[in-house]
Amino acid sequence: MKNILRMTHQRELILEELGNCHNHPTADALYERIKKKLPRISLATVYRNLEILSEAGMIRKLEISGRQKRFDKEIEQHDHIFCVQCRRVDDIKFDQSRLFSLEEEQSQGYKISGCRVEFYGVCPKCQTKNRKKQAGKGECNGGGVKITCKKKGLSGRQREVLEVLAKSDDVCANKDIAAVTSLDPKQISCQLTALKKKGFVASPVRCKYKITEAGKAAF
């Protein structure tokens, strides 16, 4: 007999809040919404139930390269486009069959069941910000000297690690970060080492990390 997923109050609330979101939230963002209605729920419970609902086919899990996992209530086939600046994710629909096809001799013997396409770029809101920023570069102070200010650069992976640490109330191990991002443990270790050298993370407990004030300012 086929197992039927038991719908607990927590799962019903997660589905309800996910349905109210149209920005493909991360587990962390969804947790912030849910705990307003269910204060005693834990972040780990939200993570676990999102994975269960995803495996049951009731929601979609979006694993965008180099980004935190996001979730979508819409399970019908569609693809996504994400902004490389603000990390916004939007739906995009197109006929994949018109763009992608493999001849039998190209498929290496595989029976093709589908494909996944990622589009990325700069969203309209960020384009507007960029234009304003570009226009502001020509402004000078009273003495006619251009004023510039540059923050220490962070890679996309480093920002992703800092984002997880910034949202955590406790120190995080490598595996904790891997559970909520698309990075593998080896990549995370490299980023943590680099961030620690910059003074953006600290390790108060062996192999566990937290974000520093400098890290919060840089992020």
TrEMBL record:
Extent of the signal sequence: none
SUPFAM superfamilies assigned to the protein according to its UniProt record, in alphabetical order: Winged helix' DNA-binding domain
Cofactor requirements of the protein: Mn(2+); Fe(2+); Zn(2+)
Cofactor note: Binds 1 Mn(2+) or Fe(2+) ion per subunit. Binds 1 zinc ion per subunit.
Keywords recorded for this protein, A-Z: DNA-binding, Iron, Metal-binding, Repressor, Transcription, Transcription regulation, Zinc
A biological-process GO annotation: negative regulation of DNA-templated transcription
Binding site residues for Fe cation: 79
A molecular function GO annotation: zinc ion binding
Annotated Zn(2+) binding sites: 83, 86, 123, 126
Gene3D superfamilies with a match to the protein in the record: 3.30.1490.190, Winged helix-like DNA-binding domain superfamily/Winged helix DNA-binding domain
PANTHER family to which the protein is assigned, alphabetical: FERRIC UPTAKE REGULATION PROTEIN, ZINC UPTAKE REGULATION PROTEIN
Family in the record: Belongs to the Fur family.
Protein name in the entry: Fe2+ or Zn2+ uptake regulation protein
Lineage: Bacteria, Pseudomonadati, Thermodesulfobacteriota, Desulfobulbia, Desulfobulbales
